[in-house]
């Protein structure tokens, strides 16, 4: 394990970005964006514990752990996590309620959309909140081509720069829509099934969700029925920068925070991690 820095390493933009608390907003943005792909949303709705209120929180924590291991784990740990994800996806099927067609959840188009919605969200929030520059945003997207390999894609199948990502998003717009499943997911996000000891967080959940929604592209907000008001984007950017600054105060020393994240990733990989969110 010593010296093995996994997919990214200490010189990467990804390590700096993912340790920032503001990335929780990016995670929510990614979920909202991902929900606009009908097959992705319906496949998730029909198979995932995220829509079972008794199991949803544990499912959410497993996703967060996967991202942590993927980011800070060793090569062996990230590869093991990827194998588990690919094995799960390979067994799952969805049904299109409009046509009755059966489809696999690991179709390349669906996997590409999930990857791009996530990486676009992380890079967008990191840049907009002041964590990284425009050049570093390109580097982040390029670095995370490696993460696509864990779900069964090749690096060449996903964008490698901001310009590539923008072109991909524009090409997808006409295929995206808000399904009933997506609307249910949106409503559920405002009343999440938090464990009892985290119930006070429900007071701030609506504000954080609204902030995440307001960071979406205008076309995505319109599809979700979110109002697009004049001047709202300037307010949103100011809120992101303020929240990032507040989170940075709680983060403390960046190198120490990254070391802690790496330790957590190793303990998640071997099953000994106990989250304060559990």
Mean pLDDT over all positions:
94
Distance between the termini: 27 Å
Q: Percentage of helical residues? A: 55-70%
Strand order of the largest sheet: 1-2
Radius of gyration: 18 Å
Which percent band covers the strand fraction? under 5%
Segments where pLDDT lies below 50 for 5+ residues? none
Tally of strands: 2
Form type: globular
Count of DSSP-assigned helices: 14
Based on helices, strands and strand pairing, what is the structural class? mainly alpha
Order of helices and strands: HHHHHEEHHHHHHHHH
Domains, number:
1
Biggest beta-sheet profile: 2 strands, antiparallel
What does this structure look like?
The chain has about 280 residues and is mainly α. It has one domain (about 15-270). It has 14 helices and two strands. It has helices at about 15-20, 25-35, 40-45, 55-70, 75-90, 110-130, 135-145, 145-150, 160-170, 180-190, 205-215, 220-225, 230-250, 255-270, and strands at about 95, 100-105. Strands 1-2 form a two-stranded antiparallel ribbon. A hairpin with a 6-residue loop joins strand 1 (about 95) and strand 2. Helix 4 (about 55-70) crosses helix 5. The longest helix has 21 residues, at about 110-130. The chain is globular. The model has no long low-confidence stretch (mean pLDDT about 95).
How are the elements arranged and paired?
Layout: H1 13-18, H2 23-34, H3 38-47, H4 56-72, H5 75-91, E1 93-95, E2 102-104, H6 108-128, H7 134-143, H8 145-148, H9 162-172, H10 180-189, H11 205-214, H12 218-224, H13 232-251, H14 254-270
Antiparallel strand pairs: 1-2
Helix pairs in contact: 2-6, 2-11, 4-5, 4-14, 6-7
